[in-house]
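Second opinion, please. Pick holes in both lines of this record:
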Amino acid sequence: MVQTPLKSTPSASSAEVQKRSKLEGIKERSNFLRQPLASELLEDTTHFTEDAIQILKFHGSYQQDNRDNRVKGQEKDYQMMLRTRNPGGFIPPELYLTLDRLSDQYGNGTLRATTRQGFQLHGVLKQNLKATIAAIVKSLGSTLGACGDLNRNIMAPPAPYKNRPEYALAQDYANRIADLLRPQTEAYYEIWLDGEKAVSVEEHPDVVAARQRNGNGTLVHGSEEPIYGTHYMPRKFKCAVTVPGDNSIDAYTQDVTLVVMTDKKGNLKGFNVLAGGGLGRTHNKEETFARTADEIGYVDKDDVYDLMKAIVATQRDYGDRYNRRHARMKYLIHDWGVDRFRQQVETYFGKPLKAFKKLPKWTFYDYLGWQEQGDGHWFVGVPIENGRVLDREGLQLKTALREIVQRFNLPMLVTPNQSVLFYDIKPEDKAAIQEILTRCGVVKETELDPLVRYAMACPALPLCGLAITEAERIMPTTLERLRTLLTKLGLRDEHFVVRMTGCPNGCARPYMAELGFVGSGPESYQVWLGGCPNQTRLARPYIERMPDREMETTLEPLFVFFRDGRKQRESFGDFCDRVGFEALRQFASTYDPEQYTPRHTKEGRHRLSVSHDLFLTLQATADKEGRPMAQVMADALGVYLQQRS
């Protein structure tokens, strides 16, 4: 068997050229993702060894333990998290009902929609893992490649428009690229289905041909994994397919984003290509950083598979396999520069890439609520706070989703904002579906506080082994505190993108938020500011460690500065980016809350007390005229005093 040589990154020292991480050896010895997982699965133990855990990830599962249940001197409460691989978020009815059943039979009673348009199942014991995965596969699902050092779930806009061909093309090519980059090892079926091949949709002939076409060294001949080789990728590899202007999938955070380009009749011409995004980082390691993708070029539709193979081969062969903190493709592009990266891709591709084509402005869409899908049928986006599907007092969300699928046999799309969408709804079924949602306490998107609607948090504690502090469990309280503070400051109707993670790995994409909280210690967070509403600009760290109890005192000066100095319709993130962090810090350091309430200042000056309604009127005037709030209030007071004299 000929194996592609593993090359070091250009920035590696000569002493590191032959070095590989411990995990590279585990992958090499695994016999293409079989061992020691297959052997340990047969053992009567509650958990896997470290080597088996690493291979288990490729099969779509992480071993976790419930930290809430830790008792000194006793074994950890080991359990598995399973993640589905479903390109573009597509969940057929039979798969959703199986996941719902498995969550009760083997899991913790909940499901969780992820930011990559999949579902996670938590709380599965090792002894039930095989039965759980087998049931998923037999219901037209898969977990293969949802985790591990290979292509993860491919994202696409969850918009089932029948009269906009570009959206159907995005979904179609998300599936095709997912098939192209799917692991070819038989280990998955050998281990979980005793060698039985699952019923699956037949791959497109162009995908099959592309996997067999060597090109210019992109394939590993004689290998069970012709694209990945023995060692797979240096780290995880994330892709998306979208349409011009639709940034529902956070296009700039992906390793590769393909943008569907059509002619005026909706016929596919090719794809714009973005590459080099990624958000994972490590605290106090400045060599790790979040990065947005670069414009790489344009490729004709017939060449898209060979281009994807060329990009994968470039990262496969030149990505850092020694320092895993430096192993994502974003670091290769950062070290090399875009031009050198493009040249290497073109070497594998066999010809130059074409110039990147102009795109319209990006906009974020969450696709919540009822919309006509273009053929007389409807779709409805159902909001799920932080992606957690559960039943609790006042909200029977899990019951509602199950009843809708059972009664109407509807397919589902998971959205990149951790919600779900039902589509192909007949007009005569709209009222009945809405009745189920209303009866079960699922609020309409128009009734949601926008702070909640556009917020995301990762699961964090108690199950994620990387979590430093809370995220999902305290996000509702955090948003309530933010809303209370904003209302107090006369910003009752203001909203912005808030995201929270329990560690710096960035699973809820906090580094693109207008206000991001990143766990930096127990009950403390880094504060990131300056992202934009459409998620096309990186935020920056404003505070390294903010105790959670100090959130209001930390943010109040920033909100007041924003309130009084914003331009017309300027968002909080855009304001922070425009004025700069030096100005934010200077204002915060001299901020005296007494000066911004209807009470005395220390110098004996007085502030005019106005009604809340009048305050909102003045604020609206400031927004309309694009002037600072303080200036509008001063002018209004001058007119008032002149009339009284």
